Amino acid sequence: MIHPLKITSTLADETRYSIYEYILQHQKPVTVQHIADTFHIHPNVARLHLTKLTEIAVIKAEFEKTGKGGRPGRIYSASDTGVSLSFPRQDFHHLVTWLFALLKKLGPEAVEACKEIAYANGKENIEKMLSLSLRVTTFEQRVEILTDSASLIGYAVNIETTEQGRTLYFSYYNCPYRSMLAEEGPLICALHEAYLQGQLEALFDVSDFTQISSMQRNCENCLYAIKVRD
């Protein structure tokens, strides 16, 4: 087990944390030179940052054979398992497993009730952020609040404006429930989508909510397209 102080001290470096976020969001293996070029740092410094992140298991390192002979190159990518911190130590995995088993045992009505709770929680969280902000009137201000909230759980928000209106694209690479998707994927996604819908409808007049890709279907990310009215 990795000591919590080692994790926090490693991620305390601003550049190192930015590199970690970059790898998470792009979800493609990177090399030392790629990180050096992207962050305008010396390759030796980039290698040090990547090594430190590997030591706390938030990214992983592998050797890539180029087919050209010589020594294989090392590539880095986001870890599939992730790392969590709690003080004192807490383990919610068993609790979540029991609750999912209970939901399935109680049947569809219990699942629908849980989706309503997730929706209300998402809406409540945004309303709290609105209450702490200055007057929010413009579309751009609402998008900024949504972006701040989304970034806390790994979403990246993009906006496309067409003649038919505005569409928000949510891309999500770092699912906090990835380890349970194989067993509970449909239920997890249903609850997560209800939470997201609650957040969106606290800010916008939503006309359409569509999932384009899903890690549950072995896509590299989850992607949603949400059409909103001004």
UniProtKB/TrEMBL annotation:
InterPro entries: WH-like_DNA-bd_sf, WH_DNA-bd_sf. It comes from the Bacteria. SUPFAM superfamilies: Winged helix' DNA-binding domain (SSF46785). This is Transcriptional regulator. It comes from Caryophanon tenue. The lineage of its organism: Bacteria, Bacillati, Bacillota, Bacilli, Bacillales.
